Amino acid sequence: MKKLSFALLAATAALLSTPAFAAPQISPQSIIVNPVPAEVGVSVWTDRDPGGNGNPTYRPGERIRLYVRTTQDAYVYLFNVDPNGKVDLILPNRYSGGDNFVRAGVTKMFPPENAGFTFDIAAPYGENKVLALASRTPLNIDDIARFQNDQAGGFAQVTVSTQTGLAQALSIVVNPVPQNSWITDTARYTVAPGGRPVAQTGSIRVESSPAGADVYLDGRLIGRTPLNIENVAVGRHDLRVVMSGYSEYRTSVDVGRNSTQTLRATLSRGSVNQGTGSLSVTSNVDRAEIFLNDRRAGRVPTTFRNLNPGIYRVRVTAPGYRDFYTTVEIRPGETSDLRVTLRR
User: Fold this and answer.
1) Element (H or E) spanning 302, and its range?
2) Which InterPro entries match (predicted)?
3) Is residue 16 scored above 80 in pLDDT?
4) What pTM does this model have?
5) What CATH superfamily is the domain 201-266?
6) Ordered alpha helix ranges (H), the chain
7) What letters, b where the CB count within 10 A reaches 16 and e where it falls short, cover 20-31?
8) Is residue 300 a contact partner of residue 293, using CB atoms and an 8 Å limit?
9) Which of 55, 284, 290, 307 is deepest in the core (most CB within 10 A)?
10) 68, 191, 71: which is closest to 121 by C-alpha?
């Protein structure tokens, strides 16, 4: 089997100042962000961080798998930027299964099974980033990466470098398409020297009655029941089980090292409880973290449903920005919209 070494993405350069309102934003944390709420959502994560909110450690020689999921049919462009600013385009590629069209609600894995190659970790050491850009329409990225005319396999030749360079190039690429038709998400991990680390992870088994319910771990959609969630970081995690026509199931799960927690959720019939309300939260900073009543609830953009009526304390936070605090009143049968502008 052919081995390909990837030391995936990191931020090492100072970034440009915030552009004008509604223009794509160059972000130290997320590379490039669409400041306008989009009609499509995308999530990207590594095999050691199913929740997508952590920064797992990999050692040289270990293998890594990446996962992408969209809320609408979309074309996904997956980039790597290593600590030295080298940019790689993972998707699309010319290997089997390298098409970048992703169906709504389908989790796509890279590399796929029987791909004929693996992603093997290599130096340089440091924090890495993986950028997923999802668009409802195909994008012309010829000024960023090109395949040879007769290229039958492999990856494209990338012509940009550094996180800032990639962000600037992508801001031009997305300019011709409707602004609400694209969105990004970023995953992180660290490449560290030394041998294989002792895994500080466990797993969660989620079952539901009825089956086929959506499972959210720490605010991120992971899959549908019955579901095994592997490589979950040790500690407490928020978990939600959601199905249309049924009341939402919420709980916290304590994950232990090398152990499996099994959760069986019995969903109650009755679509949306008329005695509850919803809260929709968006922000100018992609993946900003949301706390409801001092409890971690998820990341923007998201909508919290089946909330009991009352006053909720809301905190939105992101590295490099001042925390945002407010209170929101939830009324039965209504959705409250909270649009947060974080400032440095």
Assistant:
1) strand 302-307
2) Carb-bd-like_fold, DUF4384, PEGA
3) no
4) 0.61
5) Carboxypeptidase-like, regulatory domain (2.60.40.1120)
6) 163-173
7) eeeebbbbbbbb
8) no
9) 290
10) 191
